[in-house]
Amino acid sequence: MSEDNFFQIFQLETSHIRGRIVRMGSVLDEILDAHDYPLPIAHLIAETIILSLALSSMLKYEGIFTLQVQGDGPLKMMVCDVTSAGVVRACASFDAERFQKSREQLAALKTTESSQNHLAQYLGKGYIAFTVDQGKHTDRYQGIVELKGSSMVDCVQHYFVQSEQIGTGIKMAVGKRDGKWRAGTIMLQHMPEDEKNIQAGFGNLDEDDWRRAMILLDSCTEDEFLDPSLGSDELLLRLFHEEGVRVYEHHEIKKGCRCEAERVKNILYSMTEDDINHMNTDGKIEMTCEFCSRIYTFETKDVLRKIKK
Ligand SMILES: [Zn+2]
How many domains does the chain have? Predict the structure, then answer.
């Protein structure tokens, strides 16, 4: 089994704490490779992707899980979605000029260019929203949390503790190894004490058990998360061997996009004639998918003919 591009659920037997681990290599690198984002944005997008995968792995759903980060800073938006089949895509939208200014200001402060503490500078005020869309006939589940604290991980942990009353610890690492993007995360959760969870052995968590698990989680280093030769089973054993780790099967993560020419055409048909003429270059209109950077080309006269109808 490949030690890359998967998520896996596990359990700490002694304390009945649930966990998931996500590790990404080539799929993350391919997604980021399709874009040409400045380094700090690529880093934040990688965090968004790995966080989306950790959160979607908590849910039983048939459809699409979406995590959207929206801010009023130079980085305006990041979106990642994951289908229940494990197909993931992501993109960001930013104001290049404002972004460059913020980057220079940060450089002047002589801070390192890791994204972790720069949430406020790049994203400003805003929120993180997650949605599960299971098609027309089921409810959309939505959680929303204000952008606060120094990282997205902080925001999401805060959300679970405040809104869902689920004790949550997340540790992640994103970075390049041999010139390729890699990322990993582990998320631990203490389930609330409802009847079902108590029966399943998840009630009455001992404070000391939770604290110990958090310390062990915190001891996981960036190198351990990102080392392609360190398997996840081995990593979990290394961290939690005294807690009795039970691991479940791997779920594969793939890169993919759901864009198609038909849908792009429909967007163009809904525009005004002026808009279309404005987009026209040498008799053609090019539309680029923001997620996968695939370019769709149409004849301007064909599009105009459709609009005039
Ligand atoms: Zn696409």
Answer: 2
